[in-house]
Amino acid sequence: MASARRPFLKMNGLGNDFVVWDARAEALSLSPETIAALGNRSTGIGFDQMITVECSPAGADAFMRIHNCDGSQVSACGNATRCVGRLLMEESGRPDANIETRAGLLVARATGDPRVVTVDMGVPRLRWDEIPLAEEFADTRAIELQIGPIDAPILHTPAVVNMGNPHAIFWVGDVEAYDLGRIGPLLERHPIFPEGANISLAHVFAPDQIRVKVWERGAGLTRACGTAACAVAVAAARDGRAGRRSTVHLPGGPLTIEWREGDGHVLMTGATEVEFEGEIDLDTLAWERTGPGDADAAAAEAAS
């Protein structure tokens, strides 16, 4: 019989935070209601996504299962992939890790700084039926969608990209000039997106610098979304707004995104952090912090 007490790690990538379970030796299956209770920032642990590291049916180093804080399961999460990649590389001592996801096989690579990880996010999907959209558009660099009055829309003609999950990107002059907390829920489940979509506001303020704010499908406003950063960088390059290598500035910090010329793969590089180690009783959902994180270790090193 599986133990009700399970250890976990609390991690984040630029503030996009996760509870990470190792379920390779002992399976873990939680109901959407339990996941939502754990994700509640007032009464639970609090997180954007829950990550379950499992054995890989495809023979990769691990399979990464991703649930949003509302309990829904999604296929991709770039920041979580960097966090899990870091853990697997620390465990194996190798400079890379192969991670199976519902979006495909992703490869994490070391950078020389143990907390900074590069992930090959694969090739973006750009056709309307790959996003997917509910109707055909020949050009996904700007689709017919707007919010607000027809003659004076608040936002309009987003670019759409699939980076393992659907993204809609609205180009704006100031990402803070819009109430994304109000607009995001309206657009996330718009009928044009049969699987929902992540909604980004993006402003290109230099040829290789982009500021982004994200409403994440199933999670809400987030400090960082790795797949959104990739989608924005790809959309900007497709439209001639930026080059194929950009720094994407999210509320939680920067990610470096490169859309390679040769094979079309998107590489994402950014920081990771272990916040703390914890343990939870899955019967009662009572949890406690049991070990230090990166900041604790840095403080202890500075004091010594």
UniProtKB/TrEMBL annotation:
Gene Ontology biological process terms, A to Z: lysine biosynthetic process via diaminopimelate
Residues at which substrate binds: 16, 49, 68, 78-79, 165, 198, 216-217, 226-227
Enzyme Commission code: 5.1.1.7
Function, as annotated: Catalyzes the stereoinversion of LL-2,6-diaminopimelate (L,L-DAP) to meso-diaminopimelate (meso-DAP), a precursor of L-lysine and an essential component of the bacterial peptidoglycan.
Location of this chain's protein in the cell: Cytoplasm
GO MF, one example: diaminopimelate epimerase activity
Main location: cytoplasm
Keyword Phosphoprotein: no
Annotated site (Could be important to modulate the pK values of the two catalytic cysteine residues): 167, 216
Domain of life: Bacteria
GO cellular component entries: cytosol
Name this polypeptide is given: Diaminopimelate epimerase
Pathway: Amino-acid biosynthesis; L-lysine biosynthesis via DAP pathway; DL-2,6-diaminopimelate from LL-2,6-diaminopimelate: step 1/1
Family of the protein in this entry: Belongs to the diaminopimelate epimerase family.
